[in-house]
Amino acid sequence: MCDEKKARVLLVEDDVTIRAMYAAVLRKAGFIVEEEDSAIEALELLASGEKYDTVITDVMMARMDGWEFLKAIRAGLKLDSVALPVIVMSAHFSSDTLRVEAFQKGASATYTKAEPLSKLLNEVRIHTGRQRSRFDDTTIPD
User: Fold this and answer.
1) How far apart are CA 125 and CA 111, in angstroms?
2) What string of H, E and C letters represents the secondary structure of 65-127?
3) Per-residue pLDDT of the chain (142 residues; tens, 9 = 90+)
4) Would residue 66 count as lying in a domain?
5) pLDDT value of position 81
6) Residue 139: its pLDDT value, please?
7) If residue 45 lies in a helix (H) or strand (E), which one and from where to where?
8) What pLDDT was estimated at residue 130?
9) Which of 32, 64, 96, 109 is deepest in the core (most CB within 10 A)?
10) Residues paired with 111 in a beta bridge
11) What is the separation of C-alpha 105 from the centre of its chain, rounded to a whole number of angstroms?
12) Is residue 91 part of a domain?
C-alpha cells in the first residue's frame, strides 16, 4: 500500500468535535485526512473516483447512516474490503454480536469510541499497510 506519510484517509463523522479530534490524531501520525460530516457527501467523493487508502465511518449519522454507507460502498461502488478497507466506529460496539454484524456487513475493522485513540490509529496503520496485525500469518505456526 501507500507510504504512511502519503496514505489518504476519508473520515466520515457528523459530530464536529469528535471528527476534529480523530483528524488531528491521524494527521499527527502523518496521514492525509479528508473530513466529511455526511455519508452522502463522502459517497459522492468515492463515486467521483477519489482514491483513499481507508475509510473511517461512524454508524449513527443523519440522512444516511454508516450501515447504509458501508452497503453503498460494497454493493453500489463494488469496492471490496481489500480494495477499500472500511473501519466502522460506534459508541455502541459493546457486544460481540454487534461487531460480528459489522463484519458481516462488510466492515474491515470496528472501533468503539470509548477505546483509546491508539487502537483506532493502529487499525488505520494496519489497513494502510503501515503496521502488521498481531494475527498475521507469521504468528501462526505451520
Assistant:
1) 13
2) CHHHHHHHHHHHCCCCCCCCCEEEEECCCCCHHHHHHHHHCCCCEEEECCCCHHHHHHHHHHH
3) 444 457 999 999 999 999 999 999 999 999 999 999 999 999 999 999 899 999 999 999 999 999 999 999 988 778 766 689 999 998 877 677 778 888 999 999 999 988 899 999 999 999 998 655 444 444 434 4
4) yes
5) 66
6) 40
7) helix 39-47
8) 65
9) 109
10) 89
11) 13
12) yes
| pLDDT at site 8 | 96
Backbone phi and psi for residue 34, each to the nearest 5 degrees, phi listed first: -105, 125
Q: Give the domain extent around 55.
A: 8-130
In a domain, 138, yes or no: no
Q: What's the distance, CA 90 to chain centroid?
A: 11
CA atoms within 13 A on the CB side of 62: 4
CATH number at residue 36: 3.40.50.2300
Distance CA 36, CA 11 (A): 6
